[in-house]
Amino acid sequence: MRLTPIEIRRHRFNSRLRGFDRDEVRTFLDMVISDFEDVVRENSELRRDAERRVRELRNFRSREDNIRDTLTTAQGLVQELKRTALKEAEVIVAEAEVQSEKTVQQAETQRSQVQEEVIQLRHLRERLGMDLRSTIESYLSLIDAYQSSQPSRPPLVEVRRESSMGAKRNTC
Questions:
Q1: What is the pLDDT of residues 89-111, one digit of tens each?
Q2: In which domain, by residue range, is 46 found?
Q3: I want to staple 37 with a disulfide (CB 3.0 to 4.6 A). Which of 5, 106, 129, 168 is the partner?
Q4: Are residues 40 and 4 in contact, defined by beta-carbon separation less than 8 angstroms?
Q5: Are 40 and 64 in contact (CB under 8 A)?
Q6: CA-CA distance, 23 to 29, in Å (whole number)?
Q7: DSSP result, 17-32
Q8: Is the separation of the CB atoms in 2 and 40 below 8 Å?
Q9: What pTM, to 2 d.p., does this model score?
Q10: Into how many domains does the chain fold?
């Protein structure tokens, strides 16, 4: 059975002959009671402190678990973000490659078209040059025929013919 300071204070001893000095016993019991009260009070404070520390420890452990869970979740999110970023980068690179190929094909097609147009323009220039030469020669023949049918005029056509022939040589 646990004694309390009140029980110690209320406890009465039987007296006997040649027993203890009551005042001395009472003084001693008062000292015991005082010390016992201090011990009980200290014990109570220690219990409260221990309970508070246990609660704090539980709280810290709970926080630690929460932090650990949060860290694990964050690491998972980081990994997921990395995977997503890599996939997006691969998609962007693939799209860029496709677009690059399209651009190269378009440029090649345009180059081919421009080359074809240049060839056609050269042929057209040659044909127009030949047509123009033929037309000029036809007109010169007409002029020659006209001049030969005309009596004794100085040959103006010859001068023009020579000047037009020189111009023709310069353009070719």
A1: 999 999 999 999 999 999 999 99
A2: 5-171
A3: 5
A4: yes
A5: no
A6: 10
A7: TT---HHHHHHHHHHH
A8: no
A9: 0.43
A10: 1
